[in-house]
Design brief:
Elements lengths: L16 H9 L3 H14 L4 H11 L7
Length: 64
């Protein structure tokens, strides 16, 4: 079964982007969030724009 990148519905804080990345990479979502915040701070908060773009581009995971 191939893995696909989807936004998480279960492990989300805002849009589910970091939770979806954590599910895709099989790592802890907190580590992804901390890494995102650090990268965002180090790049003069351009990470906010990247997050918004990813929120619009990555489809949401469907749970049944």
């Amino acid at each position: 079964m191939s893995k696909t990148l989807r936004r998480s519905q279960m492990d989300r804080q805002i849009g589910g982007v970091c939770g979806g990345l954590a599910e895709y990479l099989d790592i802890d979502p907190t580590a992804v969030r901390v890494g995102y915040v650090l990268l965002s701070i180090l790049t003069a908060f351009s990470g906010v724009l990247v997050y918004i773009v990813l929120w619009m581009v990555i489809p949401e995971r469907e749970y049944y």
